[in-house]
Amino acid sequence: MKKTYDFSDGTRGAVAPATPGQTAITLPLDDEVVDWFRQQVNDAGGGDYLVLINAVLREHIRRSSGHLLEETLRKVIHQELRAAG
Question: pTM value?
Fold first, then answer.
């Protein structure tokens, strides 16, 4: 091991930058949540549990967005029917 190292050409930040369209973040999660996702990936034959977490969050957003749209449409239709008498 050297006594000193030259980091003058080094750069700060992640070793592997996020792919385009993604943002790398640090997100503290409960151990049991991480363990569950890791187990799901392991049971499926392996892979990256972070990809599964992202997919679950995407699906939640998709379902929530659809629910909000449906709720808004119901309110508008109800108001229109009430106004029409």
Answer: 0.62
Where do runs of H (alpha helix) occur along 1-85? 31-43, 49-84
Which token pair is 13? 């930040």
Report whether 40 contacts 52 (CB < 8 A).
Answer: yes
Yes or no: say if 17 and 24 are a contact pair by the CB < 8 Å rule: yes
**Do 27 and 16 contact (CB within 8 A), yes or no?**
no
70 vs 77, which has greater pLDDT?
77
34-72: burial string, b at 16+ Cβ within 10 Å, e else: eeebeeebeeeeeeebeebbeeeeeeeeeeeeeeeeeee
d(CA 81, CA 35): 50
Query: Using CA atoms, how far apart are residues 35 and 29, in angstroms rounded to an integer?
Result: 10
And the tokens for 17? Answer: 């930058």
What are the tokens at 37?
């996702």
